[in-house]
Task: structure prediction
Amino acid sequence: SPGKAASPAPAPSALHWPELDLNTEPLQGARWAAAPRDRLRALIVTQISAFARRPYLADEAGAVASLAAGLEHSLADDFCWSLCFLPAFVLRLCREGFLPICSEIAGGSGLYVLLPKLHAQRCVLDLDALRVQRSTRRRARAYTLTLNHAFRAVAEGCVEQHGENWLYPPMRGALWALFEARGERRGGPWPLTVAASVELWDAEGNLVAGELGCINGACYTSFTGFHRVPNTGVLQLAATGRLLQAAGMALWDLGQDFPYKRQLGARLVPRVEFLERLRGARDTRTELHARLAEGEPGLGPLNALEVIM
Result:
């Protein structure tokens, strides 16, 4: 296995993180926290016509029923919507192949909506087709890679680079609960579906790149990432792909299509094909699950060059 380097320490997080379990829902902003969900739904549909046209997923049962009724065939654009941020619901969305995106209605209002996204065309990478450029391998020597060592610090890096964007407080609370759910195994098998973070560190122990994602059986989904040093984002992705590949993962769900993902070997597949592939992979335990179950808080640090090679 790749050699270990000195373990870096993440800086304290400056973001507010609601402390929740899977069955505790984060609150809306103060102005809306006491408003009944049905009232908020009616208000939003009345004011914003796009929401009237999108399927509304009230809760986990509603999502399951919509999928059973053929949502992947009938969805007119990429989005459904919901006002439910219960972590167990977000977990189910991830398991079913949705990207759980959060948006704020009328910026600064503190009224948040969940926008479960099922791309009409999904960017995916079969991990046996992963390509790593020679220039990326040359740069890897000076860096180390970890998994699940600094979830909050990675989220902070994403907000630093992109703004809160979709990592608003209710979503941060839900994702943190999904990440912390790995501790509920109490010595048993690692959860099949769980949030994760990947971190890339320089020789001085600085966090220079990372991403948030979700392990879903033998499929890994990338949510969002950041980089602070040129080219470290590409390096972090390449090292992540090799780590997933070596750990027996089959499918890498990269979400939105971008040229840099194609350079890694990713391709676009129709929504129905993506969901078929996901359903065939999500109940498979891999070496990654076994390795995570052995150690806390995660994997590494690993020499990035050895991971990539």
Summary: Residues 232-246 form the longest helix (15 residues). The two ends are 11 Å apart (CA to CA). The mean pLDDT is 90.
